[in-house]
Please model this.
Amino acid sequence: MTTDLLSAEDLTKTYPLPGGTRHTAAEAVTFTVPRGGALGIVGESGSGKTTVARMLVGLVRPDRGEIHIAGRRREARTPRGKAARLARAREIQMVFQDPYISLDPRLTASQCVRTALRLHGREESRAEALLDQVGLGAREAGARPRELSGGQRQRLAIARSLAVDPQVLVLDEAVAALDVSIQAQILRLLDEIRGETGVALVFVSHDLAVVQHVTDEVLVMRNGRVVEQGPTDGVLSAPQDPYTKLLLASVPGEGWDPSAAARARAALTH
Model:
């Protein structure tokens, strides 16, 4: 029996272009994530990482490939009937880069979480504990999204997702717009949550430093294809693919040489 909580096999998505050609946004993407595990999907803009995330959640229907949760196939089509749709939502939840657009501006943080709990037949009294779990106190609980900071809204989005008790949490550039200190708080929070709940994380990011801190495995994408994957520490400390080497050479740090990144990009295009 498989120990993988989430598995994706051969996920492929193309889009039509003028002239009858097609753009391949993702091709034959395959990976697994165990319960309580964390996978990073990295790459530059246009690499296909967000397309993969949206296929996992169901916002994009793959042309080919399958997704399984705890050994059960996740259908590409949204099921009919409220009970089936709610059960599907409990499999995978997504936290977006800008959670503001997914939060009801009329609801306080507490009401937002209580609504999710009520919808899924859970005790609304859990809202306070969930908000506390993500570091939001009584003052933030009574505030509406516009009254919260970016980091607080991100915490609220995570709390609302956890209210559903998901098996998998997909985070698409979830800390990209936050200050470094707030990023660190959110990353620590996510690490604690997966340890406490067993939820599996899929962390989509262009930031290798972020991925290095929160994931066990990493998948590197370029032009819709996986060019390298494996344990995060191994891939980022001894990359094999030239594109992974380019991404690492492009990260500023102590002793960083911009010309090395330029040489790596030039070598990649030859």
Summary: The chain has a mean pLDDT of 88. The longest strand covers residues 4-16. Strands lie at 4-16, 22-34, 38-42, 64-69, 72-74, 92-95, 168-172, 200-205, 217-222, 225-231.
